[in-house]
């Protein structure tokens, strides 16, 4: 990249520019999959979605269909959702409940702990060297903190606790550790033809908020942000009643979670691709299914309290739409498309993320959370610059 840098760009130094080819380049994407996504802890579900023995949810991460379920000892497992016989997928549904998993092809049966427990017409394997103990479902590492279920597709990695870090966990423990939460809504997955970083960087770009979201400028003044290890960050948010229509404020200013007061709020950016919007009365977990250099799917889980009645759930869902889903869908998503179109232009090589002095805390309008994202990106990619050039 250095050879092609104009003098103006060179003055900024490598950390303050991004080579736009990282938003379209296939080789960069392949390296991201191998070095970032296959090695990071990735959010897949909230514990309440698999609250009971035999509950399951499914997803597909980078070509690997996964089945996340709870066994009879209450342990949560993530399995490759693929039969060990001739490779059929086991479960089609996005979620459900069962006492064992039966393959639709030749009806092999797997227990909730992944053991192969039933083979149709098993006698034909006698004397062939086939032993069913050797063919459990492939298990993927799965771990839970504060009710958030993550998987890690690599064999060698640290714990989820170490990945998130004690300080960040402590920050999220209010409110997540103070009550029992449950998924009260999942907005339909929303495919969007942009690079995953366009979406995830937007969650760290505080500079755009007053311009793209005029309502939030008044209604939700920012507090300081903090940067944590491994690329995670937290932006504190407030709420100003003067920024609301009084009729809206009437339902917005209700039902705070235990330990929170009306007005409390945080955005948690989890590297690489998850954002958790914590407001005093609703939690929106937004994450990506990354499909290719220019295709992502935005997914959502909205949390309320497990003990909420239907009316309170409705208030929380309405808040999630008001604070989060509407601004993202109506105001951010059109910008994602414009940015993707622009960074794809061969004649423009670099973007600039130079606002503000480097610091681990500060105000929303600087670019530190973006630079921190890229620091973590370079680190995992094993690259010196925000560029895939010369991989
Ligand atoms: S492929 Fe699953 S039982 Fe044959
Ligand atoms: Fe935004």
What percentage of amino acids are in beta strands? Answer: 25-35%
The termini sit apart by 11 Å
**Helical coverage, percent range:** 25-40%
What would you call the shape?
A: globular
- Average pLDDT taken over every residue: 95
Number of continuous helical runs = 10
Under CATH at level 1, the class of the largest domain stands as: Alpha Beta
Are any ligands bound, and if so which?
Answer: FE2/S2 (inorganic) cluster, fe (ii) ion
- Beta-strand segment tally: 21
The CATH topology of the largest domain: Naphthalene 1,2-dioxygenase Alpha Subunit, Chain A, domain 1
Low-confidence stretches: none
Largest sheet: 9 strands, antiparallel
Count of distinct structural domains: 2
Q: How are the SSEs ordered, and which strands pair?
A:
Layout: H1 7-12, E1 17-19, H2 26-37, E2 42-46, E3 55-61, E4 64-70, E5 76-80, E6 95-97, E7 101-102, E8 109-110, E9 116-118, E10 139-145, E11 148-152, H3 160-164, H4 166-176, E12 181-185, E13 190-192, H5 196-202, H6 209-212, H7 214-219, E14 222-227, E15 233-237, H8 246-252, E16 265-270, E17 274-279, E18 282-292, E19 295-305, H9 310-343, E20 350-352, E21 361-362, H10 368-381
Antiparallel strand pairs: 1-20, 2-11, 3-4, 3-6, 4-5, 5-10, 7-8, 8-9, 10-11, 12-19, 13-19, 14-15, 14-21, 15-16, 16-17, 17-18, 18-19
The structure holds FE2/S2 (inorganic) cluster and fe (ii) ion (FE2).
The site of FE2/S2 (inorganic) cluster (FES) has 8 residues, from loops.
